[in-house]
Amino acid sequence: MTGHGVRNHRQSFHPKTSKTKVLEINRLHPKPDWTPKYSWTTEKKIHKLREERKPRKYTDTTKYREPHRAARREACLARNVWYRHKCEHLESLYNKHDAFNLYKVIKTFLGSKKFTNHNVDEQNVPIMVIYRKKQVWKQYITSMFGDDTRSEYVPYAANDGYSILPEEIEKALGKAKTGKITWTR
After folding, report:
1. Alpha carbon separation from 127 to 114, 115, 120, 141, 182 (Å, rounded)
2. Residue 183 pLDDT > 70
3. Least confident stretch, 25-29, 64-68, 79-83, 115-119
4. What is the mean pLDDT of the chain?
5. Cα 145 to the chain's mean position, in Å?
6. Which residue has the higher pLDDT, 102 or 108?
7. Which of 69, 82, 99, 129 is deepest in the core (most CB within 10 A)?
8. Alpha helices (runs of H) in the chain, residue ranges in sequence order
């Protein structure tokens, strides 16, 4: 175990050989599909420019800046075009007097759309089992209506009812509108 085995072990972790191994693995394995970070970056041209600048990042800064500036310019143009189309769509809905769809688009555009389906637990994991959905619903209802200010005690109601004076009844009937039937039990 002296000598030869140790030398091969050290050579395998040499920075140049490990870098070539990593580059070879990256070349052989396919990259994941490109998904845009923003909804306006749908053009592949911006992605190609950004991929083009990556290898030049630490080697040549002047060659890195050219695709970087071009990518920023293309992204700015794409963003402006995307916003212009959104505004034209909103203006067309406004001109049609379609208030429902106009506010619906504005809510989704601003990201303030309220979701009515809250079938998630405390860790925001979707709940698939009906039993667990019922538990979450019960917790929600008890948190909404389970306060101490409401009393569960129902006061005793006498069969006699409240005592109303005959003068009060005559006064109420006198103030009632003519031609209308008064409420009777």
Report:
1. 19, 15, 5, 17, 54
2. no
3. 115-119
4. 76
5. 27
6. 102
7. 82
8. 4-12, 15-28, 44-53, 61-95, 99-110, 130-145, 166-175
CB 41 within 8 A of CB 59: no
Distance CA 77, CA 64 (A): 20
Residue 6 has pLDDT above 70, yes or no: no
3-state secondary structure of 175: helix
Report in angstroms the alpha-carbon separations of 171 from 11, 153, 165, 175, 179. 108, 35, 10, 6, 17
Which pair of structure tokens corresponds to residue 164? Answer: 């109303």
**CA dist., res. 99 & res. 51, Å (int):** 43
User: Phi/psi at 150 (nearest 5 deg)?
Assistant: -85, 135
Chain centroid, CA 143 distance in Å: 24
78 contacts 43 by C-beta, under 8 angstroms: yes
pLDDT tens digits, residue range 52-86? 888 878 788 888 888 888 888 888 888 899 889 99
